[in-house]
Amino acid sequence: MKSHRLQNTTKPRDCYPSAPPCHRTRPTHAFTLIELLVVISIIALLIALLLPALRNAREAALSTKCLSQMRQSGIAIKIYAQDYRGHIRRDVTNWVKPLLANDYIASGDGGVCPSWEPFSYQSNGSQIYGIRIEGVNWTQINPPANAANAIYALSLHELEDTRKPTEFLLLSDTAQYNGVGVTLTQTGQWQPGMNNPTRRHITHTRHLGAANVWAIDGHAESQSGDVLLEHEVRLWVGMDGMRYFNGAPSP
Fold it and tell me: What is the pLDDT of residue 251?
């Protein structure tokens, strides 16, 4: 008896007109070296374009924080003066200490610009916003023998009576100038006016070419060099380390 092998008469799927086409795996396309280099170049270009904008945005935020802190410090100065017969006090380098000791401000950090070293209040207390010591009548109130530990008083009410409060600046962003460039410290003294080589404690335009300042009427603002000149500030140092007098570079 002959065996009959069954014949597979089933047609392949792709032989039927109504059947969907069969999917065949295609080789994956890989990036060539040139394509990778192009992508990397584009990313590097975008980073180069975005970084300055990001730095400026960060500095603008720090400048706003600095301005707010300076305004709060100014308010504390005015309240202190109201409580002490119109006078404010400082030692040789520090005007924040009396405010801090008597709870007019919560932290010494409020008297320090967050954009510049040391960034926070230090134990010696000298690296803070600069208070004007030039062209105002600070009077030593403790015995002259204690010159190293001298305490000075200034009549804020007298300034308000004799100066134009909206224009007379008492606080400023400052830096020490060593005759060559900026040393990396803020300074609690401020000498804004005369073009004198001994002037070491001067305005610092650290906020994108401007300095934050506080006027005795209570307002704070950011001022560029041209505006500083209108407010009796004739001497400042820029971020480039160059000292300027009346807007022109000065040795």
Answer: 67
210 by Cβ neighbours in 10 Å (0-12 / 13-18 / 19+) ranks as middle
pTM given for the model: 0.77
Q: pLDDT band at 155, cuts 50/70/90?
A: very high
Q: In sequence order, what are the beta bridge partners of 203? A: 174, 236
- The length of the chain in residues reads 251
HSE of 175, CA atoms in CB hemisphere, 13 A: 28
* 248-249/139-140 β-pairing: unpaired
Structure confidence at residue 94 (pLDDT) = 93
Q: In angstroms, what is the C-alpha Rg of the chain?
A: 34
Characterize the bridge pairing of strands 235-238 and 201-205: parallel
Structure token pair of residue 73 = 């410090």
Query: Taking all residues of the chain, what is their mean pLDDT, rounded to a whole number?
Result: 83
Peptide bond into 118 cis (omega under 30): yes
The DSSP element (H or E) to which 169 belongs, if any, is strand 169-172
Please tell me the predicted confidence (pLDDT) of residue 20: 55
How far CA 63 is from CA of 82, 149, 166, 172, in Å, comes to: 29, 33, 21, 13
| The two three-digit tokens of residue 242, written as one number | 């160059």
Bridge partners of 169, per DSSP, are 215
